[in-house]
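Let us work through a complete example step by step.
Step 1: write down the sequence.
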Amino acid sequence: MRDAKSIQEGKEIKAVLTRDGLVYTWGTNELGQLGLGDTESRLITTLVPNLRDVVEIAVGGSTMFALTKDGVVWGWGSNSNSELGNGTTNNSLAPIKVDYPVKIKHIYLHCGLYFLNLFFHKFKLGQ
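Step 2: predict the structure and record it as tokens.
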């Protein structure tokens, strides 16, 4: 993929963020970690639907996250330890909004096997 901005790798999964803000994934998908709405594994890069204007991605063991330019964090995949921060332990087959009390302007995402660390600056009024 010649317009790749970032490539991330997790446990038997990979993701590419393109310069035009799209996310492509491939690999094992039994927990929905590819964000494609199903649990079918993919051998080729496949566009994550309904996810646009992405500026950063992070991949943990079987969980993925994306930050869009409007400051929204999206997550999908394994949620057995509540990695998606939605108060449940239900896996998500497609991107779901991760709720935070502030909009995020810039972020550094770091995922591990069962966690997500977010380092961010919040939006200020008038920006």
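Step 3: interpret the result. The chain has one domain: 4-122.
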